[in-house]
Amino acid sequence: MLIFLSLYFLNDIFAFSGSQDLCGYCFDTLVNSFDKRNSILSPSFKNEQHPIFVTWKKKGQLRGCIGTFSPLPLHSGLQEYALISAKRDDRFRPISVSEVPDLDVTVSIMHSFEQASRWDDWKVGVHGIRVSLNDGTSIYSATYLPEVMSELGWNQEQAIESCLQKGGYRGKLNDRIKAQVQVTRYQTSISKMDYQEYIQWRKAKLTSIRGDL
Q: Which domains does the chain have, with CATH numbers?
């Protein structure tokens, strides 16, 4: 099913490329979870359905990254995964209110899903990968967003091996496993915002709302 998602979503996704509203909405959601007086401003982007990931970092260090390949309405989906990635990524302790001023958020909207013809039929820096392996006893599956592999300087073999390990596989990435592994490649449109940018974004939004009253 993933192969066909690109035709359905591609045109709409590029309209969101670089949109600060997506990130501001995630920050609003997180801050509101700590202080209900900080209301979540009504989103200005369309409530269309897309696969999404939300990534939180603190001073450049990962603090949470969770998403879904199932298309969700953006309004509810971003609210849900802004909080899941901030507070329920079991690799990290939940983000606390004291950390918020040091955070930045990245929203990744995934598109252009294609089944790779072989394990290395994709490009570092261009594609994200969703890797699946059935070794006869278990099924292992995991994903990496495009920017992750670029930031870590991995080549294709390192990325595939690490992705399998992320999914729980503990064997070697030999020629037999390379022939068995299934890879779905995809691309992302990403938006980024740090806390200071969020404060300016929110101030501008509130000024605009008051001006319309």
A: 2-111+189-212 (3.30.700), 113-186 (3.30.1490.150)
